Amino acid sequence: MSGEMKRSGLSKGAPAPRFSDLESLREHLGDCARCSLGSTRGRLVFGVGDPHAGLMFIGEAPGRNEDLQGEPFVGTAGRLLDELLASIGLARSQVYIANVLKCRPPGNRDPLPEEVELCTPYLAEQVRLVDPKVIAALGNHATRHILGTDRGITALRGRLFQVDGRRVVPIFHPAAALYDQSKRAVLFDDFKRLRSVLEMPEENEPAHAGQMPLL
Ligand code: SF4
After folding, report:
1. Distance between CA atoms of residues 167 and 1, nearest Å
2. For residue 207, pLDDT beyond 50
3. Ligand 1 atom 3: the closest Cα is on which residue?
4. What is the pLDDT of residue 204?
5. Which residues line the pocket of ligand 1, CB cutoff 6 A?
6. Reported confidence tier of residue 11, pLDDT bands at 50, 70, 90
7. What's the CA-to-centroid distance between 137 and ligand 1, angstroms?
8. CA of 205 to the centre of ligand 1 (A)
9. Does 212 reside within a domain?
10. CA dihedral sign, ordered 174, 149, 145, 193
11. Ligand 1 binding pocket mutation candidate from 58, 119, 120 (most atoms within 8 A of CB)
């Protein structure tokens, strides 16, 4: 049904084996070819940052620069993300950054459902190992997947959600602001809200899974 919230995509698919740390998970992935992107990618983009960060960013998939460098959110969108982080007093090394897919879809096309299903268990295991209090879902695809909804980012940004005991904050993808200057100001506002969600005491948690408006 249009707009309905379903089970989070993070809990779908065959669960990945459990690992004791991110390095072991990365080692297990190796030169992963579980989906067809394994044969078209340049470099597998695992994730980067503080392995025990309280804040984890999840985007859609690596783009061209990420595919070349093997790191998420590099290039112009990555520089904007660094600027947004600095605006709330954080550095890239203090958060963890990953994507729903670890390999670039050719020509930056949308991820296919089977690619998402095969790769998500590894993202879910990354989330379990990092154990962030807050997840910032960047852009339409990541937000829909994490929240299990078909509603778009424009309707969902500015709200706070709960998934498996974690706070989830949908935010425009920084790349969207590169082509639409009006989104730049919205992004900086959303990061201020993100800071307030990070600082929100646990007793202010909504009593049940769901959503509530941000401040
Ligand atoms: S996208 Fe994920 S499942 Fe597909 S090859 Fe890359 S790491 Fe493996």
Report:
1. 24
2. no
3. 119
4. 62
5. 29, 32-35, 37-38, 44, 101-103, 115, 118-119
6. confident
7. 20
8. 35
9. no
10. positive
11. 119
Give 111's contacts (C-beta < 8 A, 6+ positions apart).
Answer: 60, 61, 100, 101, 105, 141
> Ligand 1 centroid to 197 CA: how many Å?
32
Report the nearest-CA residue for atom 2 of ligand 1. Answer: 119
Q: Give pLDDT, residue 179.
A: 84
Assess if residue 10 is contained within a domain.
Answer: no
Domains of the chain: total: 1
Residue 142 CA to ligand 1 center (angstroms) comes to 16
Domain that holds residue 23: 18-200
- Per-residue pLDDT, 3: 52
pLDDT value of position 12: 75
Contact status, residue 170 vs residue 89, Cβ threshold 8 Å:
no
Residue 58, domain member (yes or no):
yes
**Residue 215 domain flag:** no
Tokens 């709330």 -> residue:
88
CB 164 within 8 A of CB 100: no
The CATH number covering residue 88 comes to: 3.40.470.10
Tens digits of residue pLDDT in 93-132: 999 999 999 999 999 999 999 999 999 999 999 999 999 9
Question: What CA–CA distance (Å, rounded) separates 80 from 185?
Answer: 12
Which pLDDT tens digit goes with each residue over 17-46?
899 999 999 999 999 999 999 999 999 999
